[in-house]
Design brief:
This protein has 651 residues and is α/β, with parallel strands linked by helices. The chain is 58% helix and 17% strand. The termini are far apart.
Length: 651
């Protein structure tokens, strides 16, 4: 029993112990948690202290901020006060602006009124300007008339001076003629006295009467003959005087100071015309004037004019050419169209101021070859057919090339004569117009007023032309317009300063003409030079030299033994064996191969092979053919064309 009661007590004790242990544990955990809490409290206190310090800092900053805010509020108040002031000012300004608007409206109304008045004034000014322009035009017309009158008066004065000189010369000649007449009259009077004395002695001696009567008869016959000679001299003066002066000029040893100025100038011109000259040069020198005449391309001295008539001769030529005789400092151009000794003259006159005076050049225009036609330009049969084929094309450009004075204008006018048919509208642009052609509209270029080649060409295209002739292609603009005109349905004729066909193509490309345009527009090129022509009256045959034989063989493929040469002594019909000049030509008809080559821009050597093919007669070949035919000489051809010049198709 006791053991049984002891066991529950142990269990109770154990439970109590366990409870005590759990309490101890709880207390331990409580203590631990308290320690932890104390640590946290300490941490919190530290944080609180830190927060308090931050609070203090923040409070200081807030204080600072509050101070700043106070300052800013003060500023805001100040700004508000300023804004209030500005608003007040704006109100004032608005009021002022309103007043200004009212004033502006008033001013605008005044301006409208003023503009109306200004318009009225402008209309009046325009009317006044029109009136002033009319008055200025009248003044200009009056000034022109006054200038014309002055020029006419000056011309009349010069003519009076010249006529006075002529009268003085005539009076001197008459005086010379009257002197022997007076001597004859004195002798007649003496004979009459002797006759009267003889009559008184008749009663004494009849033989003396017979002797005196024949003396009287002879004396009367002499006086009558002298008076008749003087009368004939005055009657035939106008017919024979200039011819006599011309003969004196041609003697080269004349006393020009004793001749009238009019006769001197007329005789110089007639000498050049009769000799077939192309130009007459009056070159001023310290001693007077040297007169030189270009015949068949060669310029020769003919005679010299003395210094005392130097200015009178120049003045006379300028008067005839319609030039300003008072202007000696600037170059001038003029023209002479007159009839002299039954010859119709068409001359172009140019003056150039030089150190020793004005130099005068007179160009003698000869249109006889142009008027005859293409058939008389000495084209070979092959070249002639090519030219006809060119001219038959409805559009394109045909160029005549060569240096100055090689007959380009003559050839071009011949082409125009061929194309001048009914149903065609032909217009030319020239500087100057050298030959008047009936049925052709010819335009004279005037660069002083802006009427140049390019300007006229643009207007011509609106004139419905079939054929356009341009006197000369001088610049890129003219070249481009001419080419473009030729591809728009017009046939264009012109000249250009190049030596041959190949150089012509290169020259046009250098003028910035597009290759494709040039290839489609170019139809043909006629290149030419002029060689002196043998006189048909006195030319002589001779054997060819070995060099000439080789030349004919290599160029023409012919064996030539004899050719004609010039007679150095000449004859009455020529000048040293030559008379006139003949054209040496090269005609290129553009084919499709050449067009393709131009468009593709192939090398010059390859283009030369295409240009100078077997169908082209080169200038050298054409010249040598004319040597064989007896028209000219080998020397003349070789002066124009170098045999080793590859540009002429010679190798």
């Amino acid at each position: 029993m006791q053991n049984g009661s002891t066991a529950p007590n142990n269990v109770q004790n154990v439970n109590n112990n366990l409870n005590n242990n759990s309490q101890v544990n709880n207390q331990s955990s409580t203590l631990m948690s308290m320690d932890n809490n104390l640590g946290k409290v300490q941490t919190i206190e530290n944080q609180m202290q830190s927060d308090q310090q931050q609070m203090k800092t923040i409070q200081k900053e807030m204080k600072t901020i509050q101070d700043r805010m106070q300052i800013n509020q003060n500023k805001v108040q100040t700004i508000q006060s300023q804004m209030q002031n500005e608003q007040n000012k704006m109100l004032i300004i608005q009021n002022q602006m309103q007043n200004g608007h009212n004033q502006i409206q008033t001013i605008q109304n005044q301006m409208q009124n003023d503009q109306s008045q200004i318009k009225t004034i402008k209309d009046k000014m325009q009317n006044n300007q029109n009136q002033m322009q009319t008055i200025q035009n009248q003044i200009q017309n009056d000034q022109s008339q006054i200038q014309d009158i002055k020029n006419k008066m000056l011309t009349i004065q010069n003519r009076m001076q010249i006529n006075q000189k002529i009268m003085q010369d005539e009076q001197e000649q008459i005086s010379k003629k009257e002197k022997p007449v007076q001597d004859s009259q004195n002798k007649v009077q003496s004979d009459k006295k002797m006759t009267q004395q003889g009559d008184n002695k008749t009663l004494l001696n009849n033989s003396n009467e017979k002797q005196s009567t024949p003396k009287q008869t002879l004396g009367d016959q002499k006086v009558s003959q002298d008076l008749h000679n003087i009368s004939n001299m005055h009657q035939d003066k106008n017919l024979n005087n200039s011819n006599n002066k011309l003969n004196m000029l041609q003697n080269h040893n004349s006393d020009f100071s004793r001749m009238p100025i009019v006769d001197i100038v007329n005789s110089i011109i007639l000498t050049g015309v009769n000799a077939g000259a192309s130009d007459i040069h009056l070159d001023p020198t310290d001693e007077g004037i040297t007169v030189r005449i270009r015949i068949d391309g060669l310029l020769r001295d003919y005679f010299k004019l003395p210094r005392d008539i130097k200015q009178n001769v120049i003045t006379r030529v300028k008067i005839m050419a319609g030039m300003n005789i008072t202007e000696t400092r600037l170059p001038q151009d003029g023209a002479i169209k007159d009839t002299l000794k039954g010859k119709d003259l068409d001359l172009r006159v140019s003056s150039l101021p030089t150190k020793r005076g004005e130099k005068i050049v007179i160009r003698i225009m000869d249109y006889s070859m142009s008027l005859k036609g293409i058939e008389y330009l000495y084209f070979s049969e092959t070249n002639y057919n090519k030219v006809l084929k060119m001219l038959s094309t409805p559009n394109g450009i045909i160029l005549v090339t060569g240096a100055t004075g090689t007959g380009k204008s003559t050839t071009l006018y011949s082409f125009l004569q061929k194309l001048n048919v009914e149903g065609s509208n032909l217009i030319t642009v020239e500087d100057p117009v050298e030959m008047d052609i009936e049925g052709v509209n010819q335009v004279q270029v005037n660069s002083e007023i802006g009427l140049d080649f390019a300007t006229v060409l643009r207007s011509i295209l609106r004139q419905d032309p079939n054929v356009i002739m341009i006197g000369e292609i001088r610049d890129s603009e003219t070249a481009q317009i001419a080419v473009r005109a030729s591809i728009t349905g017009h046939l264009v004729l012109s000249t250009i300063h190049t030596n041959n066909s190949l150089n012509t193509i290169e020259r046009l490309l250098d003028m910035d003409v597009e290759r494709y345009l040039l290839a489609s527009a170019l139809e043909g090129i006629v290149s030419q030079k002029l060689a002196r022509m043998l006189c048909s009256k006195c030319k002589v045959k001779r054997q060819v030299t070995e060099a000439e034989r080789n030349l004919f063989k290599s160029v023409l493929g012919q064996d030539i033994d004899e050719i004609y040469a010039a007679n150095s002594s000449g004859c009455p019909h020529c000048s040293h064996g030559y008379k006139g000049r003949i054209a040496v030509q090269e005609v290129l008809l553009i084919n499709q191969d050449i067009r393709d080559a131009i468009s593709a821009g192939i090398r010059k050597d390859d283009l030369r092979k295409l240009v100078y093919n077997k169908d082209v007669i080169t200038m050298l070949q054409d010249g040598l053919f004319k040597v064989v035919a007896g028209f000219t000489t080998t020397d003349e051809i070789l002066k124009l064309i170098e045999v080793d010049d590859a540009d002429f198709g010679v190798k």
